[in-house]
Amino acid sequence: MLTALTDYARLARAGWTLMRHDALVPREFAHLAPAPVKAFGAVTRIGARGAGKRPGERLAAAFEKLGPAYVKLGQFMATRPDIIGFEMADDLGRLQDKMPAFPQKDARREIEKAFGKSADDLFAAFSEPIAAASIAQAHRAQMKDGRAVAVKILRPSIERKANEEFRGFARAARMIEAVSKSARRLEPVRFVNTLKATAAIELDLRLEAGAASELAENLRDEPRVRVPEVIWSLTARRVLTIEWIEGTPIADLKALDQRGVDRKALAQLVMASFLKQALHTGFFHADMHQGNLIIDNEVRLALVDFGIMGRLDEKARHTFAEIIYGFITRNYRRTAEVHFEAGYVPAGHSVEAFAQALRAVGEPLQGRNAHEVDMSRVLQQLFDVTALFDMHLRPELVLLQRTMVTVEGVARLLDPEINMWEAAGPTVRAYINTAIGPAAQAEKLKSATRKALEIAPRLPHYVEEIGKAAEKIADPAFAAAVRGPEKSRSGRAALWFAGAAALILAAAFILR
């Protein structure tokens, strides 16, 4: 009871902050609300701040005031323009994850608590904070052996604060699902759970270190992409030490041009790097915005900040690849079938009708460069299609969707002329050939043959078991049971079914 009251109090505080920023019942949308809600909204706007700002800008300001968990919520909301609209999604997409730095003495205290030694004992130099976000802040340091490193340290008490806020989010999401039928299709509870799971990685820097290490291993054969090395001896739950990357931020186009960097090739590399991560390994950097991409001194694409990562299992990777490949090759029928096979579209709908709807989305994109395509209109049409065919939110695809939009934006920045389908084609085709195409099918056949050879020595035993099952069915006692009184007809049918099932299962086991 006390926990529930605390959660409601916390939600009430958030509601008050939203009201002060005219972000609870925004005046721009008040006319769409029922009369009681409209009247309530008018009252909440008395004395509200943010005059002259768009609803998304006011909501972003309120989230920044409410703290880290709300900043993360706003960033995730930005991935769902189908729910909140494209203008608001764009405003929330620019939500700043920048906060005032906490004192260096607190950072040094965290280091000493983690390693039992002072920062001066561990580092030759340790700077003031160079960047501060909602979860942690970063310092530049130099190790005793001369290597330059970045030291990331969690904010004091951030774990407790985040857990409390996420608990409140979950309670609010359950209430929304309980009272709104239309909201259930969007599955707010699962959305909050996805948000909480991704934030959990950011609250244990050992997990972020593991993510960086795994990604580096997955991309070790890609000489054009670089992942900084983790300094494991100076990494703990609340402190991460990682190699410092010297280079040019990818957003600094003027500096890239001065260095003679081929921006068109770089745009292709950003797209290919993301697709290779998502498709070939199923483990991808899910926060590939401009601030996390650096061009190092050897003109390699360096990825930094591994707090938000995404995973796709083999089935999801196959589905994702076939959907993209279907659009690239204009095979909308197969693209539709893949949606049904994966369970993304309920079985009661027409495959042909869904294929027609996908064609209406895909055809306008064929052969057109990025600057010729209004992605907001394309996405709006796609979201309209998903609503029409009762597609539910797939939590495992939330981060993928968000990262795709982010990567597309970075590629557009580098090369406004880029053709997204052409850029994606080689990586997707390579995956199709290795995972789904003839080579993959041949490998599956080889695997099935090996299993058959393993079963072969025991084949006589399986045949003997089938024979015993057949003798059991032919036994007079079994037949007498079957010829029992009329009232036992259902029981006799069950016996016959059990006998037949035993034979079928045994044969299936052999043929497997």
Description:
- Helix 14 (263-281) runs parallel beside helix 20.
- The protein is 61% helix and 9% strand.
- The chain has helices at residues 2-20, 35-44, 55-66, 68-77, 81-84, 86-93, 104-115, 119-122, 158-179, 181-184, 188-202, 205-218, 253-258, 263-281, 314-329, 332-341, 351-362, 375-388, 395-414, 420-436, 438-455, 459-474, 476-482, 489-511; strands spanning 123-132, 136-143, 148-154, 225-226, 239-243, 247-249, 283-285, 293-296, 301-303, 309-311.
- The strands form three sheets. Strands 1-2-3-5 form a four-stranded antiparallel beta sheet. A four-stranded mixed beta sheet has the order 4-9-8-6. Strands 7-10 form a two-stranded antiparallel ribbon.
- With 512 residues, the chain is an alpha+beta fold.
- Strand 8 and strand 9 form a beta hairpin.
SSE inventory with pairings:
Elements: H1 2-20, H2 35-44, H3 55-66, H4 68-77, H5 81-84, H6 86-93, H7 104-115, H8 119-122, E1 123-132, E2 136-143, E3 148-154, H9 158-179, H10 181-184, H11 188-202, H12 205-218, E4 225-226, E5 239-243, E6 247-249, H13 253-258, H14 263-281, E7 283-285, E8 293-296, E9 301-303, E10 309-311, H15 314-329, H16 332-341, H17 351-362, H18 375-388, H19 395-414, H20 420-436, H21 438-455, H22 459-474, H23 476-482, H24 489-511
Parallel strand pairs: 4-9
Antiparallel strand pairs: 1-2, 2-3, 3-5, 6-8, 7-10, 8-9
